[in-house]
Design a protein that fits this description.
Two copies of one chain form a homodimer.
Chain A (H helix, E strand, L loop, with lengths): L1 H28 L5 H41 L6 H37 L1 H37 L4 H45 L11 H39 L2 H23 L9 H31 L7 H22 L4 H9 L4 H14 L2 H17 L6 H16 L2 H23 L4 H46 L3 H4 L8 H42 L12 H15 L1 H56 L9 H37 L1 H7 L3
Helix pairs in contact in A: 1-4, 1-7, 2-3, 2-6, 2-18, 3-4, 3-5, 3-6, 3-14, 3-15, 4-6, 4-7, 4-14, 5-6, 5-17, 5-18, 5-19, 5-20, 6-7, 6-13, 6-14, 6-15, 6-18, 6-20, 7-8, 7-14, 8-9, 8-15, 9-12, 9-13, 9-15, 10-11, 10-19, 11-19, 11-20, 12-13, 13-15, 14-15, 15-19, 15-20, ...
C-alpha cells in the first residue's frame, strides 16, 4: 500500500511535469513576431532575468543563514536532522516554480501578441498554453517535493508516520519564506513600476498606457512577470504544498495510521489527472464572443471539479473505511467554497454588477468619494467570504467526526483546503494567462501593431480579470483553511514535545496570554500591509522622479524622436524592491518566535488565530477594493460617466492607482504571511517550549 | 458601609453636576457678540435642535420597541423585571448627556468668537468652560444613574450583589444603543455636511472654508455640534458607565462581596473631585503662546491623574484588604496606558513628528500616493496601542491575582479601564472645547469679523486637535479594556443561568464554534465601517448636488449679492443621517442574538473576542489615518510643499476628505459597537442558553 501510494504520487507529479513540458514546447514553436516585437520582448526578458538573478542572490544568503540556525538547533536537539534540508528543498522548489513560470511567460508574451494578429482564438491558445505550463509546473513540483521526501523518510530512513509529517511540515516553511520573498519583492517591483508609470505618464503627461515614450513602460512589463507570474507561482506552490502536508500531519494525529496521511496526497495526484483532462475542453470556434471564451474556460475548470468531486467519494470510502466515509463532504465543502468565494469576489469587483457600477458613479462627485467608496466596497465584501469559510469549517469539522474527536474534525478542515486546491493545475492555468495577455498588449502597443491586435489582447486581458477573481477566491479561501489546519498542527507538535502539553493546556480564549496573542496576531496583517504599501509608495516615488527627469532632460522624447532610458527604471525598481522585501519577511519570521518566547505556546496559538482572522479579512478587503477600483476605471473607459479623459476618469485612475498595491502587493502577501507564521511557529516549537517566559 | 458608599457616589455625582451648572451660568453671562454673530449662532442652534428633535423621535420608537421586547422576555422569565427599566434609564441619561453638551456648545460658540475679539485667553476661558460643562455633565449623570440604581436595587428591593450588577449591566445596553445612534447619526450628519461643503466649495469653486457663500456652511457647523459634541457626549457617557458597571460585576464575581463592587464606584467619585481641582489649574497669563496654553491644559489633566494615582493606593488597601493591595497596579496601569496611547496617537497624527511630515511629502507625487501613505500610516499606528493594551492587560491580570483565580485577574482588567477613565471630567473638558472653538471660527468667518479673531480661534482649534488626540487615546483604550471586561461578564452571566455552564464549558480557541464566532466577530467592524462610510458617501453626494444646484441657480450668490439657502442643506443632512443611522444599529443588535442562536454561547464569546481585537485595530487605524491626513493638510497650509492652493495642497485636501468619515464617523462608532455587542449578548444570554442550535 505505501509503495503503491508513492508510485501514484510520483506518477501524478510526472504527468503534470511532462504535460507542462509538452505545452512549453508547443508555445515555443509559435512565431515571436516582428523584429521590433522580439526586441521589446528581449528587453522585458532581460529585465526580469536580471531582477530574479539579484533576488536569488539575496534569497540564497537568507536561506544560508536560516539553514545555519536550523542546523544549530538540530545539533542542540531541538529539531530532527531532516529539518534544515527539508527547509531548503521547500524554498528551492518554490523558487523553481516561480522561475519556470516567468521563463515561459516572457517567452510567450510576444508570441501571444503575434498570434493575436491572426485572431483572438490563436491568441487565447498561446496564452492559455503558457498558463498551463505554469499551472502544471506548480502542481508537478509540489507533488514531486512531497513524494520525494515521503520516499526518503519512509523507505530510506524508515521513520514513523508522525515523524515523517513533522519533517515534511518544515519544507512548508521553506516554501512560505521563498513565496513571501517572491510575492513581496515582485509585488513591490510591479506596482512601483505601474504606479510610477501611470502617475507621470497617464495623469501628468496625458500619454496612453504602454506608450513607448514612457521610460517606465518596460519596467512595468517586467513587473508583470516578476510579480504577477513569478510571485504567484511561488505563492501557489506554497499554498498547494502547505495544504497537503498539513492535512497529512492532521491525518496522522487523528487516525494514527498511514491511510489518513495518504488521502490528501492521493486527492492531489488524482486532481492532476482531472485537470489535464479539463484543459482539453478549453477550445473555441473561430470568431467566438467574449462570453463564449469565458464559457470555454469555465467548461474546463468545472469539468475537472466535477470529476474530482465524483472520484473522491469512492476514494475516501476505500482509504478511510466505510465508518468514515462522511469525511468526503469536507473535501466537497472545500471545492464548493472555493467556487463560492470566487463568485463573491466577482460580484464585488466586476463591472457587470452593482457594487462596481455604483463605485464608478461615485466618481461624479470627485476623487475623495471614489476612494471612500472603494474602501467601503472592499470592507463590505469581507462578509460573504467569512460566512462561506465559516460554514465550510463547521461542515468539514462535523462531517469528519469533530463532535467525537476534535483532531478528526481538524483533519476535515485541512481536507477541505486540499479539496479546494485539488484542481489547482487548471485553475492556475486560467489565472496565469492573464499577465501574459497583459504583457502581449504592452508589446503590441510599443511595437506599434495594428489597433485590432491591442483590442484582442485587451479582450484576453479583461477575460483574465474575471478568471483571476475566481483564482483569488481559491487562493484566499485555501489560505484561511490551511492556516487553521496549521494552527492545529502546531498544537499537535507542541503536545508531542516533552513538557509541551502543560504549556498548551489552557487554550481558553479568556486566558490572557491567548487573548493578548490574539490581539498581536490580529495586528500583524495591518502592520504588514502598511510596510508593504509604504515600500511601494517609496519605490514608486523614486520611479516618478526618474520618469519626470527623463521627460525633462531627454530632448525630443515626447515627440518620439529620442528613445527613453528604460534600463534605468528597471534598475531602480529592482534595487528598491529587493531592499524593501527584507523587512517584512524578517518581521514575519521574528514575530512568532518573539511572541512564543514572551507569551509561551498558548500565546502563539492566540497569535495564529488572530492573524488568520484579521489576515483573511484584510486580504479580502484589499484585493476586492483594488479589483473594484480597477474595473470601475475600465467601466468608465467603456464610455459611461464621461468616458476616457473626463474628470470622472481622472478620479477613477487615482482609485485604480491606490488599488494597485492593495490588490497586487499587500493583499496577496498577507495570504502567505498567515501561513508562514504558522510554519515558523511549528519549526521553532521546541525552542519555545523550552525557553518561554510565561 | 453600603450607605456610606451610596452617599459618597451621590456626593460625587452632585458635585459634578453642580460644578457643571456653575460653569454653565458663567458661560451664559458672556456677551454673544454682534447681531450678525447672534443671527448665525441662532441658525446653527436651530438646525441642531431640529436635528436632535427628529433624532429623538426615532430613538423613542426604537426604545419603545426594545422595551416591549425586553418586557416580553421578562414576563417569559428570561430576564429580571428591572431590566427593561434599567435599559430605558441608560438610554435616557446618555441622550441627556449629549443634549446638555450640545446646548452649552451652541450657546458658547458665538461667545467664544466674541471673547476672541478681546484676546486669546478670553477665548480659551469661554471655550474651556463650555468643555467643562460637558465633561462634568457626563460624569455627573453617569454617577447619578449608577448610584440611583444601586440605591433602588440595594435598599428598596434588597437584592444580592450579583443581582444588582446583573440588572445594572442592562442600563449599559441602553446607554450603548443611544450612544451608537448619536455617534452614527451625528457622525454621518457632520461628515456629509463637511465633505459636501469642502468638495464643492473648496475644491471646485475655490472659496475658503466657512465662506458664507457656501450653502452647506451652516450645516457644517450644525454637524460639529450634533456629531462632535452630542455624539461624543453620549459616547463617553457610555464608556464611563460601561467600564464602571462591568468592573462592579466582575468584582462581585471575583470576591463575592460588596467591597470589590464598591471600589470602581468610589474611584469614579474621587476622580470627580480630582478633576474639579484640576480645572482650577487651567489658566494662563495674557499673551501666552500656543505652547504655554497647552502646558496649562496639561497641568490640569496631569494634576488630576497624579492625585488619583496617589489616592487610589490607600483606597484599594482599605477596601480590598492588605492581601489584595497589588490590585492597585491595575488601576495605575490603566491610567498610564491611556496617556501612552494618547501619546502614540499624537506621534502618528501631529505634524510635529515624522509620520505626518512624511505623509505631507507624499503629496509631491500626487493624490494617489498621499492616499496610500495615509492608509499605511493608519495601519502602522495600530502596533504601539496594541502593545500598550497587551502589556496593560497582562499587568492588570497578574497583579490582581489572575494566576490563582482568573476572575480576579479579569476584575483587574476592568479596573484598569476604570482607572483610565477616572479623570474623564477634565480630559473630556479639554477635548470637548475643540468643536466649540471650531464653531467659533466658523462664526467669526461668516460674520466677517477681523482676521485676528479667526487667527485666535484657529489657534484654539489647533490646540484642541492635540488634546483631542489624547482624548481619543483614552476613548479607544478604555473601549478595548471595557469590552474585554464585558466579555468576562458575559461568561459569568451565562454560568449563572440554569443550563448555561455546560453551554460555555469549551471555550478552547480550537473549538470550531469559538473559532467561527471569532471570524464573524472580526468581520463586523469591517462591515460596520463600510456601512457607515457608505452612508456618509451617499449623504455627502446629495449635499454636493444641492450645493452645485444653488451655485448654478441662485443668481448673484458667488458675488455675495444673494444669500444661500442654508436650511435646505441642514434639512438634507438631517434626513439623510437619520435614515442612515438605523441599519448599522440594527445590525449591531441583531448579530449577537443571531450568532448566539446559531453557534451558541461559545460562539458568542468567540465573536466578542474577534470583534474587540479587530474593532480596536480598525478604530485606531481609521482615527489615526484620518488625523494624519487632516494635519498633513494643515502642515501644507502652513507653507511647505507649495502651501495653500498648490497641487500638493489639492491632493492633501482629498486625503483630508477621505479621512473625515474615517476619524469622525466610522472610527469612533466602532468603539461603541464592540461594547454594544457585549451588552446585547449579556442581556440576551438567557434566550441564547435556552434556544441555541449548537
Amino acid at each position: 500500500m505505501e509503495k503503491l501510494l508513492t508510485i501514484l504520487t510520483f506518477v501524478g507529479a510526472a504527468l503534470a511535469l511532462v504535460f507542462a513540458a509538452v505545452k512549453a514546447r508547443k508555445v515555443i514553436k509559435f512565431s515571436p513576431g516582428t523584429e521590433k516585437m522580439r526586441k521589446i520582448s528581449y528587453a522585458i526578458r532581460e529585465g526580469a532575468n536580471a531582477y530574479l538573478k539579484r533576488q536569488y542572490k539575496i534569497v540564497v544568503i537568507f536561506f544560508g543563514i536560516m539553514f545555519a540556525v536550523l542546523g544549530a538547533m538540530a545539533i542542540a536537539g531541538l529539531l530532527t536532522p531532516y529539518v534544515p534540508f527539508a527547509f531548503l528543498t521547500g524554498g528551492f522548489f518554490s523558487a523553481l516554480s516561480g522561475f519556470v513560470g516567468m521563463k515561459i511567460a516572457t517567452i510567450s508574451n510576444t508570441r501571444t501578441a503575434n498570434a493575436c494578429r491572426e485572431g483572438l482564438n490563436n491568441g487565447l491558445k498561446v496564452a492559455f498554453s503558457a498558463g498551463s505550463v505554469m499551472g502544471f509546473t506548480v502542481v508537478g513540483l509540489g507533488l514531486l517535493d512531497i513524494s520525494l521526501w515521503f520516499f526518503i523518510l519512509k523507505f530510506i530512513f524508515k521513520l514513523e508516520p508522525h515523524e515523517i509529517t513533522s519533517a515534511m511540515l518544515t519544507f512548508g516553511m521553506g516554501a512560505s519564506s521563498m513565496a513571501l520573498f517572491a510575492r513581496v519583492g515582485g509585488g513591490i517591483f510591479t506596482k512601483a513600476a505601474d504606479v510610477g508609470a501611470d502617475l507621470v505618464g497617464k495623469v501628468e503627461a496625458g500619454i496612453p498606457e504602454d506608450d513607448p515614450r514612457n521610460p517606465a513602460v518596460i519596467a512595468d512589463n517586467v513587473g508583470d512577470n516578476v510579480g504577477d507570474v513569478a510571485g504567484m507561482g511561488a505563492d501557489l506552490y506554497e499554498s498547494y504544498v502547505g495544504s497537503i502536508i498539513s492535512a497529512c500531519a492532521l491525518g496522522v494525529a487523528a487516525f494514527n495510521n498511514f491511510n489518513a496521511m495518504a488521502l490528501p496526497m492521493l486527492i492531489a495526484a488524482i486532481g492532476v489527472v482531472c485537470s489535464i483532462f479539463g484543459t482539453f475542453l478549453v477550445k473555441t470556434k473561430e470568431g467566438a464572443t467574449q462570453k463564449e471564451l469565458l464559457k470555454s474556460l469555465s467548461r474546463g475548470t468545472n469539468f475537472s471539479a466535477i470529476v474530482i468531486a465524483i472520484v473522491s467519494l469512492p476514494l475516501v470510502y476505500f482509504i478511510l473505511g466505510k465508518e468514515n466515509w462522511t469525511v468526503y463532504f469536507a473535501i466537497f465543502a472545500g471545492l464548493i467554497s472555493g467556487v463560492l468565494i470566487g463568485q463573491s469576489t466577482e460580484y464585488f469587483t466586476s463591472d457587470s454588477y452593482k457594487p462596481t457600477k455604483n463605485l464608478a458613479a461615485t466618481s461624479e462627485t470627485g476623487t475623495a468619494t471614489i476612494i471612500i467608496g472603494g474602501l467601503s466596497v472592499g470592507m463590505l465584501s469581507t462578509l460573504l467570504p467569512i460566512i462561506i469559510v465559516a460554514v465550510c469549517v463547521l461542515v468539514s469539522y462535523f462531517v469528519s467526526g469533530g463532535a467525537h474527536s476534535s483532531s478528526m474534525g481538524l483533519y476535515g478542515i485541512a481536507l477541505a483546503a486540499v479539496g479546494m486546491l485539488s484542481t489547482l493545475g487548471i485553475t492556475l492555468a486560467t489565472d496565469a494567462y492573464g499577465p501574459v495577455a497583459d504583457n502581449a498588449g504592452g508589446i503590441a502597443e510599443m511595437a506599434g501593431l495594428d489597433k485590432s491586435v491591442r483590442e484582442r489582447t485587451d479582450a484576453l486581458d479583461s477575460l483574465g480579470n474575471t478568471t483571476a477573481a475566481t483564482g483569488k477566491g481559491f487562493a484566499i479561501g485555501s489560505a484561511a483553511l490551511t492556516a487553521l489546519a496549521l494552527m492545529a498542527s502546531y498544537i499537535d507538535k507542541v503536545n508531542s514535545i516533552e513538557g509541551g502539553a502543560e504549556k498548551i493546556a489552557n487554550l481558553n480564549i479568556t486566558n490572557p496570554t491567548v487573548l493578548i496573542g490574539l490581539f498581536i496576531g490580529a495586528c500583524l496583517p495591518f502592520v504588514f500591509a502598511a510596510l508593504t504599501m509604504n515600500s511601494v509608495g517609496r519605490a514608486a516615488q523614486s520611479v516618478v522622479k526618474e520618469v519626470r527627469r527623463q521627460f525633462k532632460e531627454i530632448k525630443g522624447l515626447m515627440e518620439g524622436k529620442a528613445e527613453a532610458d528604460y534600463a534605468s527604471c528597471v534598475d531602480l525598481c529592482t534595487k528598491a524592491s529587493l531592499r524593501e522585501m527584507i523587512l517584512p519577511t524578517v518581521v514575519a519570521i521574528a514575530v512568532p518566535v518573539a511572541v512564543g518566547i514572551v507569551l509561551g505556546c498558548s500565546g502563539v496559538v492566540g497569535m495564529l488565530a488572530g492573524a488568520t482572522a484579521s489576515g483573511f479579512l484584510m486580504a479580502v478587503f484589499m484585493s476586492n477594493a483594488g479589483g473594484a477600483w480597477d474595473n470601475a476605471k475600465k467601466y468608465i473607459e467603456s464610455g459611461v460617466h464621461g468616458g476616457k479623459g473626463s474628470s470622472c476618469h481622472k478620479s477613477a485612475v487615482v482609485g485604480d492607482t491606490v488599488g494597485d498595491p492593495f490588490k497586487d502587493t499587500s493583499g496577496p502577501a498577507i495570504n502567505i504571511l498567515i501561513k508562514l507564521l504558522s510554519m515558523v511557529s511549528i519549526v521553532f516549537a521546541g525552542l519555545v517550549v523550552n525557553f518561554s517566559i510565561l
